[in-house]
Amino acid sequence: MDIKYERRKKEGKPVIAICYDFDKTLSPDDMQAQGYIQEVYGDDISSFWKESNEMAEMNEMDTNLAYMYKMVQEAQGRIVFTKKTLEDYGSRVTLFPGVEDWFERIKEYGKEHGVIIEHYIISSGLKEMIEGTSVAKAGVFEKIYASSFMYNDRGVAVWPAQAVNYTNKTQFLFRIEKGVLDVNDSGVNNYFAPEDLRVPFRNIVYIGDSDTDIPCMKLVNSYSGYSIGVFDNSKLDKTKVYKMIHDNRIKFFAPADYTEGSELDNLVKAIIDRTATNEILENAHFDCKKETDSNDANKRNNRAKQQRLDLILSLNGCRSFTATHTVIKDLNNYDNWEDDEIDMLLDIALSNNQVRYILNDFDVKAFYQSIIRQMTKENEKSQKINAEFK
Q1: Rounded Cα–Cα distance for residues 306 and 295 (Å)
Q2: Which of 100, 205, 260, 261 is deepest in the core (most CB within 10 A)?
Q3: What gap in Å lies between CA 380 and CA 140, rounded to an integer?
Q4: Which residues are bridge partners to 143 per DSSP?
Q5: CA-to-CA distance for 199 and 11, rounded, in angstroms?
Q6: Once rounded to an integer, what is the mean pLDDT over residues 198-222?
Q7: Is pLDDT of 45 > 60?
Q8: What region, left, alpha or beta, does residue 139 occupy, with left being phi > 0 and alpha being psi -120 to 50 degrees?
Q9: pLDDT tens digit string along 50-78?
Q10: Distance between CA 268 and CA 387 in Å, rounded?
Q11: Are 132 and 89 a contacting pair, CB within 8 Å?
Q12: Please, are residues 251 and 223 in contact by the beta-carbon 8 Å criterion?
């Protein structure tokens, strides 16, 4: 059964997609360490991650699949591990300053400047926990791409449905670029002309904090987008962002402070301002390109029409059967004949003896049958020629 997925088309206004990692980007700590691990495992949070990573290494296992398995394992006999349970844990997650009103405020700023702002999560964390946060419940995200569980008929998590790691994060940027947002829609592999991309990479902003964000940051950077590294201002540790600048992974860094007037706030607003102006130039370029392509197509059509006319005149001037067969062969290289051209060809078949005498030769007959089929309605000339065919 073919499933029809909803796809977003290019808007009348430019769209900026701001994509966020979650842990240590919007929240100061790993989401699992803000309630879940303490309740089912104890306060030794580092041991949970150590055991999870060891399990991954011993089994050549994806680290995200490992922590998801360990979460299910540790929950047994302690809590009922359902989607609602995870959402409840998500509701306890702490957010960086200003995050609560950031998304609507930035969206409004974009609206004031003629730019549509869309917010996306691309995270290795848990989708269910992110959906439990206050900001997600407010509906600020267009899409949340994150690891998630499959649930049995009792609503209990039993298996990973999605495992988002640092390398496969990049696929979601291409989905956003093309407006093909559903994770199962293979249309993301379709070709889109540059002028038809809904959110070209130059209009994508990626905000992250660590090595797991590097593939996305590098991709966005490579295609003239904006990658921003953030750090916890309370710790004043810029080691990671310095390294990402040195390695050309990011263009900018700022404290993870989302309040109005902050360094990050001013930076994103400057990107919006620049995009509003830049898209005027991009649209002007595409208009010029479209006009040029149309002019080239007209030239090709005119050249082809002249070539067809020359061949029609050559056919009418044929004085031998050999010459007639040669011209017919050349005429067969063309299709989509225009009405006036068909009419001239029919006249030649009826009036030129060199053509009429060999109408039933295979190549001549096939050519005339072909052009008659292209007629919207047969006329007296075409009927006379059909009558000649044996």
Answers
A1: 16
A2: 205
A3: 68
A4: 120
A5: 9
A6: 93
A7: yes
A8: left
A9: 999 999 999 999 999 999 999 888 888 88
A10: 76
A11: yes
A12: no
**Would you say 299 and 283 are in contact if contact means Cβ atoms under 8 Å apart?**
no
pLDDT digits (tens, 9 = 90+) for 274-294: 999 988 888 888 888 888 888
The residues, any chain, with a CB within 8 Å of residue 207's CB and separated by 6 or more, are 18, 19, 20, 21, 25, 227, 228, 230
Dihedral of alpha carbons 296, 298, 300, 306, sign: negative
Q: What are phi and psi of 4, to 5 degrees?
A: -95, 115
Token digits for 131? 């959906």
What is the pLDDT at residue 263?
A: 96
DSSP letter, residue 203? G
Q: Which residue has the tokens 């702490």?
A: 94
Q: Note the pLDDT tens digit of each residue in 172-193.
A: 999 999 999 999 999 999 999 8
Report CA torsion sign: 176, 177, 179, 181. negative
* Residue type, position 232, single letter: D
What pLDDT is attached to residue 2?
62
Q: Are 364 and 345 in contact (CB under 8 A)?
A: no
Residue 157: DSSP 8-state: E
Query: Given this model, what pLDDT does residue 184 score?
Result: 92
Residue position matching structure tokens 């049958």? 369
